[in-house]
Amino acid sequence: MSLQVFLNDRLVPKEEATVSVFDHGLLYGDGVFEGIRVYGGKVFLHPEHIERLFESARAIRLEIPMSPDEMTRAVEKTVAANNISDGYVRLVVTRGSGSLGLDIRRTSDPQVIIIADTITLYPPEIYEEGMPLVTASTIRNHPQALSPRIKSLNYLNNIMAKVEGSDAGTVEALMMNHKGEVAECTGDNIFIVKHGVLKTPPIDAGILDGITRRAVLRLAREAEIPSEEVTLTRHDLYVADECFLTGSAAEVVPVISLDGRPIGDGKPGRTTNRLLEAFRDLTRK
Ligand code: PMP
To answer: Keywords for this entry (predicted)?
Structure first.
C-alpha cells in the first residue's frame, strides 16, 4: 500500500500529497519542522517535539492552524495508518501560498505535512566503530540573524557545511559559531568527555536545543556521570578523551577523530558506550 501522508486535515496517498509552487516554504524556506523517532509504535518524547514545533512557529510569527493536542493526534494517526513500529516522523508547517513577495500578510493557508516512514540513517558499523568528523568553514548562522533554536525550513547554512563534510569524506561536519566556539554539527548536537566529565556547548552558543541532547543529559544524571554545559573550543575537542553526537535521527553516534586527529585512543569511548546503551534501553524497552 502507498505511504499515507497527512496533509492539513486528512491522510492522502503520497502521490496526492502536494503543495503549491507559490508556497513560501518552497519559495523562501519560510516554515518550521520537526524530526521525531518512533520506537515500538510509540512516538518518542512526543510532547517535547510538539512544544518545540509550536515555539519555532511562534518565533517566526507563523500561526499553526491546529492546537498542540490536535497535532499530537494527527502524528499518532499518521504513524498508525502507515503501520510504523520503528521509524521516523517528519512534521512540517509551511507559511502557505502567497504572492511572490516576502510579506507574510499576503500569504494564506499554512500547510501541515506529516510523513511517517521507516529510517536507516547510518549503517550499524558506525555505532560500533565511530565516525570521523571534520570542521566546516561555514559557521552556524548568527543567533541575531536567525536563532538556531528555531527549527526552520531554512537549512542552507547547515547544508553548505554538510557539503564540506561530504567533500572531505565524512557524513557529518562540525560547525563553529560566530565567535569561533564549538556550536553543533549540521544535524546533530555534540558532546565530549574529558577526565570523566561530560561536556556540551550551552544553548546560547547558538545551537538547536536538541531533544536527544536533553535526553542524554538526563541519562547522564541518572547514571551519576557529571556533566556541564560549557563553552568548548576546537582545541577542547582535539584533546578530549571521547566525543559523540546526538540527534533524533542519528540517536547517539561515537566520533573517533576530528580533522584527522584521533580523539582519545581513536575508538568509541567507555562513557559514550555507556550512554549509547542507556539510550537504547530508554528507546527500546
Ligand atoms: N542540531 C541541528 C542543527 C539539527 O538539525 C538537529 C536534528 N533535528 C539536532 C541538532 C538534534 O536535535 P534533536 O535531538 O532534537 O533531533
So the answer is: Amino-acid biosynthesis, Aminotransferase, Branched-chain amino acid biosynthesis, Pyridoxal phosphate, Transferase
- Among residues 173, 178, 174, 182, the alpha carbon closest in space to that of 143 is found at 178
Determine whether 151 is an active site residue: yes
Question: What backbone phi and psi angles, to 5 degrees, belong to 72?
Answer: -60, -45
Average pLDDT over residues 39-58: 98
Q: What is the CATH number of domain 4-117?
A: 3.30.470.10
Give whole-number Cα distances, 209 to 69, 133, 228, in Å. 22, 21, 15
pLDDT for 285 equals 73
The complex scores an ipTM of: 0.99
Domain chopping of the chain, boundaries: 4-117, 124-284
* Distance from residue 213's CA to the centre of ligand 1 (Å): 8
pLDDT of the residue at 242: 98
Quick check: 197 pLDDT over 90? yes
Q: Which atom of ligand 1 is nearest to the CA of 49?
A: 15
- From the CB of 152, is ligand 1 less than 6 Å away? no
CATH superfamily of 124-284: D-amino Acid Aminotransferase, subunit A, domain 2 (3.20.10.10)
Q: For ligand 1, is residue 208 a contact (CB within 6 Å)?
A: yes
Enter the C-alpha cell of residue 16: 496526492
The closest residue, in CA terms, to atom 7 on ligand 1 is 187
Q: Which atom of ligand 1 is nearest to the CA of 52?
A: 15
Q: How far is the CA of 100 from the centre of ligand 1 (A)?
A: 30
